Amino acid sequence: MTRTTPGAERTVVVGAALLDGGRLLAARRSAPADLAGRWELPGGKVEAGERPEDALVRELREELGVDAEPVDRVPGEWPLRTPYVLQVWTVRLCPGSPPPRPLQDHDELRWLTPDRIWEVDWLDQDVPAVREALAVIGDGA
Ligand SMILES: Nc1nc2c([nH]c(=O)n2[C@H]2C[C@H](O)[C@@H](COP(=O)(O)OP(=O)(O)OP(=O)(O)O)O2)c(=O)[nH]1
User: Fold this and answer.
1) Which domains does the chain have, with CATH numbers?
2) Atom of ligand 1 nearest to the CA of 44
3) Which CDD domains match (predicted)?
4) Helix or strand or coil: residue 136?
5) Phi and psi dihedrals of 87, rounded to 5?
6) What is the pLDDT of residues 9-65, one digit of tens each?
């Protein structure tokens, strides 16, 4: 018998802690209106049957035009608007990748050194995820 637990349905949103030379890429959302102007980790929803790492590579190609490679999962999981939860990976650009450009969903990108991470207005729900990513970067990832 199949039983479903009420509230158990959830969709993973993958976020990239895209690193280059010790800097982290922050992306400013251009839509929807309630998120526009706030900063996030680029990424998006994992599709049915898709591995999170594959979703990350796909989303980064679509949104930023880059060839990227997930490195490690950042420990933790952060609730977003129901039914979404945010999982984060450190990611690096593949050799020869074009630099990131705001092709979709974003209107500005910024490379941040660890001491400048909090200079942008991160989405509230991203703050704990960014803090955790920063801890990993600080460890020399
Ligand atoms: N990508 C991303 N989305 C985030 C973050 N924080 C956060 O609350 N969200 C929300 C915004 C959206 O409601 C949802 C992800 O949607 P999305 O628009 O980025 O994903 P997508 O490209 O797959 O979306 P879609 O237009 O194909 O439906 O998660 C974050 O750090 N990165």
Assistant:
1) 11-138 (3.90.79.10)
2) 20
3) NUDIX_MutT_NudA_like
4) helix
5) -120, 145
6) 899 999 999 999 999 999 999 999 999 999 999 999 999 999 999 999 999 999 999
